[in-house]
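User: Can you predict the 3D structure for this chain?
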Amino acid sequence: MQFKLISAFIIFIGSYLPLALILAVQDIPITWWQSPFCNISNFSSCSFIPFMNPVLSILFIGITVVAVLLSNKLLNETPMPFEARVDSSKPIPNDIINYVFPYVVAFMGLSYNTPDKLLGFLVFILWMFAITYKSGQIIMNPLLLMFGWKLYEAKININNHVKEVRVLKKGDLPEGDYAVQTIQNFYIAKDKE
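Assistant: Here is the predicted structure, written as structure tokens:
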């Protein structure tokens, strides 16, 4: 099974939630941080949206939060038509390095006040998505850890064929029988009901 382009993009863009938060914090002027807390007696003078570019800040955070939630939902609702026996497994450390570079970029002059750099960054994200999608690595989203998804290297027996594969499962993956689905170069596993 191959992720449809839209589903794959949702999973991919959800991994950029930390970047959206970094850019949003950078979009808050220092004067806002130095201002006193909101006083209930003078409620009308309170500033609830501190961003210099509120539309971009809120939009990017909103899109990435929705993408993370939809990613979890997509994986939870993936049909599992096959059965497999896991003979052994070991956790694979998340490939965080793929996501480090965009965050470093955020501290090197990328902001919502520089549309030319934002356009360049958009091209970069689209290029990264194309590479990630074509290479079958779309599932390696470290933010899935927030929902308990873990990546394993496992030896499985499916239809009397033993394979060494990468398995994504919510929670631990001890030896036993599972319902599975193949997506790109990965297996997604769930406990049998």
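The mean pLDDT is 83. Residues 54-76 form the longest helix (23 residues).
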